[in-house]
Amino acid sequence: MPQPSQSQVYANVPLTNLSVAFMQQTGQVAGSIFPRVMVGKPSGTFYTYDRSYWLRSDAQQRAPGTESAGSGYPIATDTFHAVRFAIHKDIADPIRAAQDNPINLDSEAVAYVSSQLILKQEVDWVTNFFGTGIWTGGTGGTDVTPGILWSDAASDPIGDIKKEKRTVNQNTGLVPNTLVCGAKLFDDLVEHPDVLDRLKYTGTMGSPARASEQQLAQLFGLERVVVARAIRNTSAEGVAASYSFIAGTRNALLAYAAPNAGIMTPSAGYTFVWPENGAGNEFGVSLKKFRLPEAVESDRVEAEMYYDQKVISAALGVFFSAAVAA
Predict the structure, then answer these.
(1) Does residue 66 form part of some domain?
(2) For residues 99 and 156, what is the distance between their CA atoms, to the nearest angstrom?
(3) How far apart are CA 112 and CA 92, in angstroms?
(4) C-beta neighbour count of 13 within 10 angstroms
C-alpha cells in the first residue's frame, strides 16, 4: 500500500472530538488549574515584565513650563517548548470481527489512549508545579510547613492560608485565588474544628455540617479549592498493581492562576499547547486512525499532544509541604 496513506497525514476529526469527553475526567488538575495558551508553533518566546517597575510610582508634581517626570520599564523574554507525547492502541482484524455489542473497539481505543495522555500530563503537572523548591511566594520566600500541622485541632489553617495570601499580595500586588489540595489534607481540613465551627449552622440532624470545596474556598477567601485525586499504578506490566495518588496526600499549593491567558496577564503558571497546526482539539490532542501494513491485519488508533507546563512567576505560588500528619 502507498506510504504514507492519507489517514496517516491527517488527524481523524471525529475521533479527536470524541477524545474531549475523556480529557475532562474528575480528579485530575493538570488541565484546569493554570490557563492553556494555544500557540502557533511548538516552540517560541514570550514576553515577561519586571513587576518592581509596575509597583513603583515615579509620578511627580509638575510645575508650569516644566517637563513631566519620565519613567519606563524593561521587557524581557522567556521561552517555551511544547514537547510531543504519543501513544497508540492496535485493533487486530480477528478481534474486531469477534466483538459483540455493546463493545465498540474504536471508542474504547480512543478512551484508552486519551486516558494515557491524561495520566502523563497529570504526572508532569505534579513534577513541574506541585512540589518543594518550586515556589517563592511563601513567607521567607520558601516552602511552608505549618508550625502546628492542620491535622491537629490546635492549628489555625484559615489563619495560615490568609497569612500567606497577604504575603503574596504584598510582594506582587495580586491575591492568590486557588488552592490545590492533596486528598488527606482536604479531608483533614473539612473536619477541622475551626472549619466546622464556621459551618455549624449549615447542617441538619440527618445531615451534619461538612465543608465542600466551594465552602472551603469561601472560608479562605478564594475563588476555588480543588482536590487532586488522580491516581496511577506505578507497577510495570505483569507485576502486582500498586496504586497511589499522583499528587500525594499531604501537600497543598496556594497560587494566583489567571482566569485567562494574555500577553500582559500574570499567572503563577501557564500550559503552552500546540494544536498541531489546527489538527488538535482544545487540549492539543489529535487522534489518527490508520491501517497498518496488510501483513499485520490491524487498525491503529494513535493519540498525541504537544504541551509545555511552565512556571511563569514563582512569587505567585506558595507550597505547603507535609501540612498534615501522615
Answers:
(1) no
(2) 57
(3) 16
(4) 12
255 domain residue, yes or no: yes
Structural domain count of the chain: 1
Any idea what the CATH number is for the domain that residue 176 is in? 3.90.1690.10
DSSP state of 164: H
Q: Which residues of 129-159 are buried (b: 16+ CB within 10 A; e: fewer)?
A: bbbeebbbbbeeeebbebeebbbeeebbbbe
Angle at 177 between CA 175 and CA 180, to 5 degrees: 130
Q: What is the mean pLDDT of residues 237-257?
A: 96
Cα 312 to Cα 77: distance, rounded to the nearest angstrom: 11
Mean pLDDT value across residues 35-46:
92
- Check pLDDT > 80 for residue 203: no
Asked whether residue 164 is domain-assigned, the answer is yes
Residue 199 and residue 6 in contact, taking contact as beta carbons nearer than 8 Å: no
pTM for this one?
0.87
Q: What per-residue confidence (pLDDT) applies to 19?
A: 59
Q: How far apart are CA 229 and CA 231, in angstroms?
A: 6
Q: What is the pLDDT of residues 167-186, one digit of tens each?
A: 999 999 999 999 999 999 99
What domain range is 118 assigned to?
A: 6-52+77-320
Instruction: State pLDDT tens for residues 207-236.
Output: 555 689 999 999 999 999 999 999 999 999
Q: If we measure between CA atoms, which residue out of 110, 119, 95 comes closest to residue 286? A: 110
In this structure, is residue 61 part of a structural domain? no
Q: Is the predicted pLDDT of residue 9 greater than 90, yes or no?
A: no
